[in-house]
Fold this sequence. Notes:
Layout: H1 2-10, H2 12-18, H3 21-53
Amino acid sequence: MTAELERALGALRTVRACRVEEREEELIGHRAEQACAAGVRAARITAPNSSRSCTTDPA
């Protein structure tokens, strides 16, 4: 996502000259949604593991 944003910002003049602002906006928005979903999945995967590591061994 960061690379896409940097690419789009770096090429802003080209994007404007070619009139593809809307397409770039949709692409970056899609990448942002993907990054958010990946973060949520990672949190769900790691949450049970982190709670297990906090328990003490009864032995």
